[in-house]
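The authors assume throughout that readers already know how a fold can be written as discrete tokens. For illustration, here is how one protein appears when written out as sequence plus structure tokens.
>
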Amino acid sequence: MALNRLLFWFASLDFGKLAGAMLITTFVFWYFILDDGSVLKNDIRRVGAEVNVEREKVKESERAIKESDTVKAQLSSLGDKYGEVTALIPQELPVSDVLRTISTTAALTGVNIKLQEPKPPSQRDILEEMPFKLLLEGTFSEVTMFLYYISTAERIMRVSNFSISLGGGTGQELGTVQFEGDLVAYRFVGKKEK
């Protein structure tokens, strides 16, 4: 019914008014009713951008998972190495065993022990350090062989704070050197209870 009235109204108009009405109708149709796909294109662009953001999030999550797996593998490897190292470090290490190792190695390499004195032990995290003051005499090769054998001994020992000086003083043969330093042996004591 309303359409019939609209059509009768158009029929009653002269050409100028009809052309004006058609222009207004075309303008209204063009800007408000006609969909040239730009709305869909904008929606597609927006959704595409959201999809790209989500893809980046997925890639970032995959990288994080890979990094997590790498960290887990490294942690497992460190745990295994920790087990290996703690197995090498003795849990029971009397001072007499360390002194015997020093004496045996000195006799094997030919150095003379002038001083072999234990110092008070100190605890560092899971290890107890057992330091010894050493004063040795021998040829340079004998002293270096002694240090090599001590540092590669089955029980973990480390030489620190040392000096090597030429001998040749009173009562010493020419060509001898004097080693003075600290030898530190380690004993595994585990973690402190809090």
